[in-house]
Amino acid sequence: MSEKWYPVIDYEICKECGACFNKCKHEVYKKEGNRPVVVFPEGCVQGCKGCQSLCPSGAIQYVGDNGQTDNCACGCCNS
Asked: In this protein, which residues make up the domain named 4Fe-4S ferredoxin-type (predicted)?
């Protein structure tokens, strides 16, 4: 798990579809109404972009993302 890598949601373009909330197995997100909220950023796995890859609006970016392709150890990116 990482304290230097975590998702940030752009609510101006978020469609509140729940894909990120449903995908993440690490309880990084909580739903407030239909809106996903990052409540446990340190639970995000360094290099994991599983929820970003499912976001239909491209509303998820990561603090700590240097643009390099990292392989995450959790397997979320591959499932």
From this structure: 5-34, 35-65
pLDDT digits (tens, 9 = 90+) for 30-70: 999 999 999 999 999 988 999 999 999 999 999 999 876 66
> pTM (2 decimals)?
0.85
State both tokens at 79.
Answer: 């499932």
The Cα 61–Cα 10 span in angstroms is: 8
Which CATH architecture best describes the domain 6-67+71-75? 2-Layer Sandwich (3.30)
Strands 29-32 and 35-38: antiparallel
Q: Where are the domains of the chain?
A: 6-67+71-75
Structure-block tokens of residue 67: 């643009």
Angstrom distance (rounded) from CA 18 to CA 36: 7
CA 44 to chain centre: 7
